[in-house]
Amino acid sequence: MEAQVQDLVEKGIMLPLMEEFYTIQGEGYHKGAAAYFIRVGGCDVGCHWCDVKESWNPAIHPPTEIEKIADNASKFSKTIVVTGGEPLTWDMGPLTTLLKEKGLNTHIETSGAYPLSGTWDWICLSPKKLKLPTKEIYQKADELKVIVYNKDDFRFAEAQATKVNSRCKLYLQPEWSKREKMIPEIVDYVMQNPKWVVSLQTHKYLNIP
User: Fold this and answer.
1) For labelling alongside 193, which of 11, 13, 41, 178 has CA 20 to 30 A away?
2) 124 assigned binding-site residue
3) Based on the structure, what is the number of domains in the chain?
4) 120 carries a ligand binding annotation
5) Residue 26 assigned as binding residue
């Protein structure tokens, strides 16, 4: 990547765009609602079970002008979900400024591993053990979504739940490859700990993006 383009990416004026698509939100609080997804490349958190590992290397995704990204998004939906990869790898301020100028609702799905940037109507925090969230984002998260790969993740979920604000919605979601094993355990856990809600990747059951 040439230095001038790299500088624009570092400033959030361009972003390594992996994909963008209009679909149904499959997970968490807004599941079932139509939304336009912007998937940004770049992530060094390194979850071994990640189902979009092709998003990790930003160099393989074309640096794209945020004006183009925002214009595309505005044609499809009022709700825009920025995801990754880890979108907070980059400065989200310039992109969300454009989206808000167009009157759009801005949502982010993030591990919280990097400082929060941008203006958001909804923050879905999905913390990872390998690189924990910053202190700031816990108090701003609207939704805490913990991926359950094994039994130790229940312990991790409870530890994370002590850090978020009182209005934050709490979700436990089975990692897709372990869903048959972990769903019964998650159901039992939620029934015993009803502050939590079960989240499923319903878009995969619906066979949509």
Assistant:
1) 178
2) no
3) 1
4) no
5) yes
